[in-house]
Amino acid sequence: MTRDSGRGVDVELKDTCVRFGDFTAVHATNLTVRAGEFFSILGPSGCGKTTLLRTISGFLEPTSGDVKIGGRSMLGVGPQARPTALIFQSLALFPLMSVWENVAFGLEMRGWNRDKRRGRAQELLDLVALGDQGDKKPDALSGGQRQRVAVARALAVEPSVLLLDEPLSALDLKLRQRMRSELRDIQRKTGVTFIYITHDQGEALTMSDRIAVMVDGRIEQVGTGDAIYSAPTSAFVATFVGANNAFPGKIISDNAGDAVIETSAGKVHGSNPQKLAVGSDAIAFVRPEKTQVLSGPGAGVGQANRTDHLVGGAVNRIEVQFERRDLEGPFVNLFFRRGKHRWMVHAPNGAGAHEVGSSCAIGFTAADALVLPARRPADDSGA
Amino acid sequence: MNALGRAFGPTMGTAVLLLVSIWIIGMIVGPQLIMVEQSLWYIDRGGAAAAISADIDRYYNDIDMLGFDRDDAGARGPGVSRDNEIARIDEQIAGIERQIRDLEAVESVPRKVYSLRNYAGMGRSHFFIFLKTIAAAVAVTVIAFVVCYPVAYTVARLATPGKAAILMLGLIVPYSINELLRVFAWLMILNYNGVANLLLGALGWDAVPFLESGAGVFIAMVYAYVLFMVFPIYNTVSTLDFSQVEAARDMGAPMWQIHRRIILPHARPGIAVGCIMTFMLAAGSYSVPYIMTRGVAEPWFTQLIYNKFFESNNWNGGAAYAFTLLVACVLFVFLMMRVFKVGIRDIAP
Predict the structure, then answer these.
(1) In chain A, what residues touch B257 (CB-CB under 8 Å)?
(2) Nearest CA in chain A to B251
């Protein structure tokens, strides 16, 4: 096997499909992860992302299609012979071995002698800032330290691609946030391609160069965090990544990408990047931070810089009732209701008090309302 | 004591204490103490005792002889001399009977002597059988382990609980059949004219004297006790987080290294328990060697113990033999704990 020490290679999925009996865990998928990239696969549990990762690592063979790593087909190549290393969700540290023996396990299997192994393990433990913990048992370490041992152990075999299966999910919030930046640092230092599986959009958005959003065994969208967040291409991505206010309805007119949707709350003007036809079912999505309170108690508080914006463009105005205020710390989430629909507005902490049930209006510009198809095109094709 | 009372209340606390005491005294201390005590003394019947019983025999002879004299005297014609003669003989008989009573009183209170004679008295041939039994029990344990580890591993590895349950059932079913029945079945299989030799004959092989060579005991014993190895190993292997195995594989470990470095170390407590149970059962088994050897092959040590008790009627010697076997078994337990580096806590979690 050819391994350029510490140099990532690209991973390519070609019509990769994985079936278990009648159940298709991963539909035919095409995906290219570039060399040295921090790539996240984001999706809800059960969407097939772990299956995809296990297919790349070699624990599963694709039912059809190909997996190429560094340009070489990996069909029939076992996990031990692939230039990948997998970090398990449970970390799977060996509890009966000391920390350094854990890290050096892959080297032991390659027949390195004890002194050489010990030396290399020490270097790797230094890399993850655990230089003085080598003789402890994994159980004696904290959650974050164990996490770093798992990373060091995976890096010991000098993989070109590091696969991480939700490794931070067992940690508490603060630790998780610190580990994000540590993982990012390690990735930059080593230059190894990282493929990171997570259901936590925060993890995906903060760490990744690019993200693939996956649902029901299909990849919905691939792009940078910014692209995924501000220009989702499907209703699922729009609602799964970050919060979004949805205005479902039917397109009644379209003027060069400027569409009008007839919704239960009235007409909504929005941008129509996918050029959806008039008459088709669509949903207009508006981010809570792009939505503002127009009238009633607390209207316009902290949003002065955006009112002028509203004056110029086509203003969408929805009459609603105030329902609830959730304190998030630096900002508050204000919830408004109309019929069975509920919408949220991000407002800075300190926005005026609303009385529950009071009538008010919310609004947003047409440019901030993204019109997306109500159904996934993939479902229509019946693949 | 107070803690028990607090935890269970006075009534339950006392009951728990009582049950624990009954368990400790009745199951552990009592039987062992009685056996050790029995093994440490013997009845002194040597020297003086033998002379006394010879004397008693002689006196009984004398009484019989005097009886004949008395009959002779009675056959004479009546007269004073005859009556005198009979009276004299009766007096002699009474005197001898008094002496016999005295001697018998001495003989019926034999001397109970405490010594290690029962242990030292084991002859070369018996000691050899003792060693052979221990070695055979070790061999049964090793074979049982070799057979059971792959089975236990496979069952534990089967991801679906349903499949594992069916396999487990399959393993248990033979053990719900009476042990005697199973052993007798093996007797018929391994007989000189049995099924095994029939099959070998069909393959053109000569008949093998399984029973006469002592191999029969061995085979039946592996079969009889193999399950006691499967369950403890299965229990520990099934608690292994299988992603450890995958992680090892991912890092390039071949299967044998995964077993050596990951699975076997994890299963250590189960292996230790399995080895201890199998060894104890094999070394202490009576029915299996009794049925399978039937006097044609060398006996096992347990049979010697039985013979001491019930055929030589030497309970003290039997107790010493039994206690020797117990000591050997306890030593084996400690050896296993050393070898597998497990503590009491690992074995009895």
Answers:
(1) 109
(2) A106
